[in-house]
Amino acid sequence: MVARNQHMITLSVVQFFVSLVFAVVFLAAVYMAGGLVTTSFDVINRAKEDGDVTLLFSGDDSECNLFSGKWVFDNKSYPLYKDRECEFMSDQLACNKFGRQDLSYQQWRWQPHYCDLPRFNATRLLERLRNKRMVFVGDSLNRGQWVSMVCLLDSSIHNPKMKFLNYINGSNLISFKAPGYNASIEFYWAPLLVESNSDDPVNHRLPERIIKSQSIEKHARVWTDADILVFNSYLWWRQPHIKVLWGSFEDKNGIYKEVEMLRSYELALKTWSEWLEIHVNRTKTRLFFMSMSPTHERAEEWGASNDQNCYGETDMIIKDGYTSPGTDPKMMRIVENSIDELKTRGLRVHILNITQLSEYRKEGHPSIYRKQWDSLSEEQLSNPSSYSDCIHWCLPGVPDVWNELLYAYIFQQ
Ligand SMILES: *[C@@H]1O[C@H](CO)[C@@H](O)[C@H](O)[C@H]1NC(C)=O
Ligand SMILES: *[C@@H]1O[C@H](CO)[C@@H](O)[C@H](O)[C@H]1NC(C)=O
Ligand SMILES: *[C@@H]1O[C@H](CO)[C@@H](O)[C@H](O)[C@H]1NC(C)=O
Ligand SMILES: *[C@@H]1O[C@H](CO)[C@@H](O)[C@H](O)[C@H]1NC(C)=O
Ligand SMILES: *[C@@H]1O[C@H](CO)[C@@H](O)[C@H](O)[C@H]1NC(C)=O
Ligand SMILES: *[C@@H]1O[C@H](CO)[C@@H](O)[C@H](O)[C@H]1NC(C)=O
């Protein structure tokens, strides 16, 4: 009985992954070309001592900005887990398993300029999550971060019976359970946060994007009571216009309006923040929003040949402060404005500003090293960059660092 259920879970999880791969790879982002001058970048090999390092920050306004720093090669402490040893790893992200041979992408530590990140201690985090629910809400980038978190925790739970996935076919929610701690670490699929025609966890590859900008309850009631909420929403918005629907998806007489993307993003975040303001228990729930995850789909942006992308990249971008012209700071401003507004109403949401640190990591994406769900044509095989995934991130890799930052905030008093 148990075995059969587990088999079903495995099948549906696979389908879930399949759909997510296509969903995001399918998105066409609009980019401008940009030049790039490279200067030297200080890379030192500094391994960490065991034990926690003091965390020298007392809030977002203090001198230490955890998001301003540099990558330091550290093959003594990294990777924090092995992809083949984590049974919850996604085949979409397990680059080494799917043939990637250069492994330095797994061995970089993020070093903030004026302070240190605490060392990630999975046991300590599980103890903090005892009797709690942490939910990641968003798209497949957020899902990758959830997989990373599950693998980070997995390595410290040695009894295989004390960890499992819970997933009901057709549901937007997938949960990792650690019964020894009564802890639940979950992912909820809502790529545009509000209700949309892309909400089906399996069938969401649709030619046009339609949102119901004022409706979030269907999703939010699933996660509102969580103890820790980690949101993201960015890539699915990357098109010039979004259709906004007044009425229901089933109703043939619903009214549609094409709205400029930034305006529709603003509308959706307004609905999201109003929901939080009214429904979230401020003494219980801690709120985080992951900033934009950059993509590396146009190699001319970092000075390489213009018909290439992240395929074949084995080094990061070394220009200090590099940002891709494809990363839209206007969207970041909209998130900041919504969150500042919430702050004036007494609700605190922390933005984890992972955009800049991820910008450097053009070598961190799966490119061709992941499970291919469709067989590839001769033409594709002769041109690997044509089917490279330069959006998601290999694990172990960049999202582990996002989780180390989240960890730092969770333990910040
Ligand atoms: C991790 O945390 C646990 C529980 O707080 C503690 O007992 C252990 O010593 C920590 N491990 C390290 C390497 O600091
Ligand atoms: C770490 O990298 C250095 C320099 O590349 C190398 O000499 C050393 O063998 C590596 N250590 C491990 C544990 O991989
Ligand atoms: C287990 O955790 C849930 C939250 O995920 C909580 O509601 C419940 O009370 C906990 N159970 C016990 C026995 O503490
Ligand atoms: C999951 O549900 C879909 C329809 O909603 C169905 O086609 C599929 O066979 C189901 N998968 C499993 C493993 O039950
Ligand atoms: C909010 O959460 C706190 C801590 O878990 C709890 O004591 C309190 O009853 C909750 N308030 C409401 C209105 O549910
Ligand atoms: C995040 O970092 C970028 C680049 O360093 C900066 O422009 C932006 O203002 C930051 N946003 C927040 C909310 O800190």
UniProtKB/TrEMBL annotation:
It is found in: Membrane. It comes from the Eukaryota. It comes from Deinandra increscens subsp. villosa. This is Trichome birefringence-like N-terminal domain-containing protein. The keyword Transmembrane applies. GO terms for molecular function: O-acetyltransferase activity. One of its GO terms (cellular component) is membrane. Pfam families: PC-Esterase (PF13839), PMR5N (PF14416). Residues 117-408 form the Trichome birefringence-like C-terminal domain. Belongs to the PC-esterase family. TBL subfamily. Keywords: Membrane, Signal-anchor, Transmembrane, Transmembrane helix. The lineage of its organism: Eukaryota, Viridiplantae, Streptophyta, Embryophyta, Tracheophyta. InterPro entries: TBL, TBL_C, TBL_N. It is a single-pass membrane protein. Residues 63-116 form the Trichome birefringence-like N-terminal domain. The chain crosses the membrane at residues 12-34.
